[in-house]
From TrEMBL:
Residues passing through the membrane, by range: 35-56
Key words, A-Z: Membrane, Transmembrane, Transmembrane helix
Protein name: AsmA-like C-terminal domain-containing protein
Source domain of life: Bacteria
Amino acid sequence: MKQIVKNFNNLIKKTIFKLKKKTNNKFHVSTFNKYIITAISILFAYIFYLLIPLLYDKNWVQNKIVSKLSSEFNINLTNSFDISYRILPKPHYLIRDSKTSLAEIKTLNVLISQNNFFNKDSIRINEVFIEEANFSLLSNDLKPLYKDSENKFSKKKIKINDSNVFFKNNLNEVISIIKISNAFLFFDEKNLFNLFDLKGEIFNIPFELNYQNTINSQKNIKIKASDIKLKIIDKFFKKDEDLNSGMNNISILNSSINTKYSIKDQIVIFQSDGSKTLNSKINYNGQLAINPFDLNLKIDLYNYKISNLFTPNSIINEFIKSGLLFNENISVHTLVNIKSTKKDKIFNEAKLKLKILNGKISFDKSIFINNNIGLIEVSNSDLFLENDKLILSANLSIDIKDPDRLYSFLSTNKRLRKDIKNIKLNIIYDFLGNEITFKNIKIDDNKVSDQFYNIAEGFNDNSSNNLTKSRRLLNELIGLYEG
């Protein structure tokens, strides 16, 4: 390029300056104009240089690009496609409507080096840029991510924008979809690891993922989902061909869940390692089968205020509202044993059961206990989406062990007290609207009056419910009940 500039300067001197002398100084070119003419000439020469690849044979170009994509980027195009050369924003070959074994790619930009267009055989790819692609992946297709250094990514970047990843099970059914805003992957020669970085969305939740796979079989994964205040850090170590182990940290809201785990034959066995949730100690252990997804989990939670489970911003509320549970291809059996803090005036103990099977979510046989008063048991529960609302429907059976303790807790007037043993009702709770409705109320198998339901509507706005308000409304209902 320097030689080109030099040649044009010499040309100007030999022509324009010579013309100036012959015209006896009647024709004058200023220094500024000389620079303008030189710059324009260089620009045109540069554009002509960039257009040289248009002269290459199209079939030769297609074969050359396909070969280099395969050998340098492991991108194997399997169909005929349209290819054209563009110089803006950088010299590149534009490939439309191509396919690989894993993806359908609407736009594939192959950025090439500008070093020597005069020698077509020296063509070199600098970077690959994929747009509007649909990737279809089975679990086996992800194995290269977990292999060692013999499965290095390309040393040159592959960028991906505005694309989708469809994860499928062995029956070719889609189990989840990731929408990719932007991503890139390459092998970092300086630090000797594969790097994959992604910003996207799953289950309508935006997230960021950073993955590093080092040559010594150590893998680091970081996932961040700010909308649900979630952060995951995972460190993975390969012990031998059949056994792997790792450490995982999940931070969500004010909780930190630390887990030790091992993996063998696609079964993950895990246990807690100093985890805390809302300043409460938590122990857990379980087993997870990856394909198909099947989780068995037992949790023991200590010194936790059980009534916090029913607040709008509780962990379980946020998790349910995230929509992660609504997947027909997962199976979950979870038991949570909770010992309450002394500050909880309502519950001393709880056994919370969560079951997910074939897309149906239930909390049946969950129990909430007050040692002095009695217990509440859940049955016929169902969690579902309806008209953009997240609804929990459940039957509650409230067994009262000691009515006097109940009335003492509620500060009920003695003349209003009745000998009540059992209350049954159906609740409809809208998680997103934070509204609760009571139906089919029976006290000791007796139906209640319409006026009883009118007073019970005072509980509908759950955001305004507190202990003082609840005591007042319950006492009104007790006074209204004829027994």
